[in-house]
Amino acid sequence: MGRYPHEFSGGQRQRIGIARALAVDPSFIVADEPVSALDVSIQAQVVNLIQDLQEELGLTVLFIAHDLHVVEYICDRMIVMYLGRIMEVAPSRELNRNPKHPYTEALLSAAPVPDPTIKRQRIILEGDIPSPINPPSGCVFRTRCRYAIAECANTVPELREVSPDHFKACIRDDIL
């Protein structure tokens, strides 16, 4: 109680934040990037703590993160968003093993693989991220998508089921 916030480690601060959220006995918690600034070993401890609390307290957690492997570990379902739009929705394991949207494919290619014998082709997204205030016409991802065609500029793709319980917002069915 006698310490100032800057005197705590990153992991301690995350645990304090979780404790503060739990103080009001919630049934739902939004965890926005709860492990992004932590080293890997501390990330694992915080993720395991969140999972334990989910089970013990029956909590629902909306876990927001850029590390898709961490999200897969802690979540049953994943939603991939780009510029505030949903690009893909699927059970976590399915989405990580079988992405259907080009943005998900690019995100997964950026994640490090712990096995040095596995070589993954890194997909580098070209161009600048468009303004969320003035997004591009049609598909918001089209300006950075390696599969974009002219029709992508004219059509806002609907989120549609492409396999059982797997949805994507892309007009292209001939890719991935």
TrEMBL record:
Keywords: ATP-binding, Nucleotide-binding, Transport. One of its GO terms (molecular function) is ATP binding. Belongs to the ABC transporter superfamily. Residues 3-35 form the ABC transporter domain. It comes from the Bacteria. Residues 87-152 form the Oligopeptide/dipeptide ABC transporter C-terminal domain. The keyword GTP-binding does not apply. InterPro entries: ABC_transp_ATP-bind, ABC_transporter-like_ATP-bd, Oligopep_ABC_C, P-loop_NTPase. It comes from Deinococcus xinjiangensis. NCBIfam families: oligo_HPY. This is Oligopeptide transport ATP-binding protein OppF. The keyword RNA-binding does not apply. The lineage of its organism: Bacteria, Thermotogati, Deinococcota, Deinococci, Deinococcales.
